[in-house]
TrEMBL record, chains A, B:
Protein name: 2-dehydro-3-deoxygalactonokinase
Transmembrane parts of this sequence: 261-284
InterPro entries xrefs: DGOK, DGOK_C, DGOK_N
Organism, as annotated: Mesorhizobium vachelliae
The UniProt record lists the keyword Aminoacyl-tRNA synthetase: no
A Pfam family reported for this protein in Swiss-Prot or TrEMBL: DGOK
UniProt keyword list: Membrane, Transmembrane, Transmembrane helix
Keyword hit for Protease: no
Entry superkingdom: Bacteria
Amino acid sequence: MSAAPAVAALDWGTTRLRAWLLDGTGKVLAERRGDDGLITAREKGFATVLEGHLGAMGAPDTLPVIICGMAGSRQGWIEAPYVTVPAPIGAILRGAARVEGSSRDIRIVPGLAQRLTEAPDVMRGEETQLAGAGLPAKGRHLVCMPGTHSKWVAVADGTVEGFGTWPTGELFSVLATHSILKHSLGERPAPVSADSRFFRQWCERALGEGGDVTSKLFAIRAAGLLQDLQPDEAAAALSGLLIGGEIASARRRYGASEAPVALVASGALATLYGAALGFAGLAFRAVDADEAVRAGLVEAARENGMIGGAS
Amino acid sequence: MSAAPAVAALDWGTTRLRAWLLDGTGKVLAERRGDDGLITAREKGFATVLEGHLGAMGAPDTLPVIICGMAGSRQGWIEAPYVTVPAPIGAILRGAARVEGSSRDIRIVPGLAQRLTEAPDVMRGEETQLAGAGLPAKGRHLVCMPGTHSKWVAVADGTVEGFGTWPTGELFSVLATHSILKHSLGERPAPVSADSRFFRQWCERALGEGGDVTSKLFAIRAAGLLQDLQPDEAAAALSGLLIGGEIASARRRYGASEAPVALVASGALATLYGAALGFAGLAFRAVDADEAVRAGLVEAARENGMIGGAS
């Protein structure tokens, strides 16, 4: 016997969408993935896209829907205005914006804005992963969420104190495709392995430089000319350099945290960042990114009274 | 009355070429610029391209020719193998490789290789600018040669001790064109002015971060969203951030030099780097890049006995 869903939860990004039917504890009853992110949904209509996925999963007409991600941006369905940090995680979730004109209860979790003159920053979607990362209610915690635009978040006693963005994934892609390093990495470098000694070497070099990576980018090219560095090795070197640089820079900004870093990631990225945190001598607790976003969405639904109390 | 040329000098790069007829003191008697760099010359033939320019300048058939730049790379006319640093500048110039099979005396200045395991690096062309930068024979000097791939060189008592490459110009171009920052900078940002307060602000922020620029790239995007940073201002911010990061990183690597930094540059880049060195509190001596490469080529011709002794 299949349990009745308590809520539909969506992580609705710029190019992709993931949707789940969840019970009140966050258990997955159904799942859909689609390429109809914000860009597609702006053409087809957000409501149409949503109902298509809900219908395909057999969701009841009255099932409430909680959404996070770029669907809540100014270019999205409705704008869920940024919450300015510092802000308690519970208050952030309760700031969800309601989509009017639907018979369903549909709400979108707001993003976060850091309105510092010297370090302005924004996130949208990661705040929900953060809420589902299982952070202890007390103490100071550092959270690392790697990706195209990696986010590091400092949380103290359940309040987001500040955060930063390192565009590590985007830099890898842009440099591998459009810079002189394309000659070093070749057309299709193999996926980078955390076991590669080149990943480790270049990661450790970056860790020793406090986040300065630009001084070492051309060295990857030169290593091809002078040290016979091969394309797959150059890809591992670039990945290690950028990830090591991100970790060194974040550590410099946020200092050492007593608690292990919460590493919210999935798949290959989780392995690479786990290895790199190890090279940096930082203890970490691995949190699956998919589970975190679902747990955060359930928490958001609960904070907004869309489903029952504590599981 | 026009003086007789003593040597033809060419700065022969990947995409462009500059050629001069010079007298024995380095005075310019004729000049040509062309788009027939290495890429074009590989198709047309290097000798054909060279004789075309020499003929157009009315050079005598027996005039010796001294060349620097990518024409001496493995993909060039002949390879002028890298000289490994540390190396005295005079010895580098005397390593010029002779092009066989021509009735002229044609030589190409070698590039430099830094064969350090952790900091491999190469240059080709800048060694000649360096030789013509008018460095005192004694003492420790730091030379900054900004560009697509900026070079910083540490010289002590006329010997190149080491150097590094910061791909600042390339990063600006690649990020402005292919990263999320293209939305911040727009299609055609205005040329960056050293007087822009955004250039200064972001340069000073980078100078305070020891060369860590990746932590601040996304902040330029966020400043557009949160602080209404306009496209031309974002371009100035990115330029300031990258140039400031380069200077901070180079200063960290090479330490403070007692003598002013020799800034070998021309045009807008000379102005921007001059301003940025000022923000960093570093004294500098401006050297025109065009004059430096010509002076270096004359020096190379002299060191190789192609023209007479000291001017």
